[in-house]
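Database export, one record per block. Field names are fixed; values are copied verbatim from the stored entry.
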Amino acid sequence: MTKPRILMTRRWPDAVEAQLTQHFEVTVNRSDAPLCALDLKEAIGHFDALLPTSTDRIDADTFDVPRKQARIIANLGVGFNHIDVGEATAQGITVTNTPDVLSECTADLAMTLMLMVARRVPEGVQELRADNWRGWRPTMLIGAQVSGKTLGIVGFGRVGQELARRAHHGFGMNVIVYDNRPISPDVLHRFGAVQVDQLDDLLPMVDFVSLNCSAAPDNRFLIDARRLDLMRPDAFLINTAQGSLVDEHALTQALMFETIGGAALDVFGCDPRQRPDLAQCDNLVMLPQMGSATQEARKALGSRVLKNLMDFFDGKEPRDRVA
């Protein structure tokens, strides 16, 4: 029996690629650079399955081919706002994602970013690498303590709850959460958390603000100039969710004029390019989308894609179907 033909738009961990090869006829973009719009359009016409990542913009025009071979788009990642799901559905193409596997590693990174920006870790590393360190001094790189402080979590889903677990039970932090749905009192009690009704109420109350919510259209620029002004002048903003949640121009102004203590970002509005002026802020920590960058998480993502594909081509309903 002929194996379904699939295209992987980027390199995946070797172990996952080997698993996929056992079940499918696999073509891999070994350049590991994002495919252009024409390449993605051609893939829709030549492969049974397309395995994209967040770097692949699959819009309505991508489906405009004379003959469509693709029957499923199995996305590697939780978010799928880079895929025109409505058009895919109209064309009879199934779309799946990979939820539930990144909560712990993303929460780990959010905690890492909090510690890095509060304790001015990148500045210390740079001082050593540039051979500018002249020994310990009482005023050297004084930062902020994390233990015992108050953390505001915006979006209390799986990642938000894992972050609360680390912050409250590991660092003795007080936790205040904002979510657009009521959180069960039992869940809040588990993490010593309190829920507020409005984001504007949370911002002046906390020492750290961590964004862990979705990139829904109405969440674009959720943190804008007005809300940055509501934060304490020594508070820190952490974003491991989506770059579109933050108005980066407003954030740059807040950092340059030090109206907030600092920020730490793993995502940006225009990945993989960042605003040049944002990069000049010393009170900013930047990482290149490392939220899922562990062996365990990347393998789990790949295994979830494999399961979705196998179910689909076996005539079963994929577990993670979104359209």
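Remark 1: Residues 123 and 282 are 8 Å apart (CA to CA).
Remark 2: The longest strand covers residues 150-154.
End of record.
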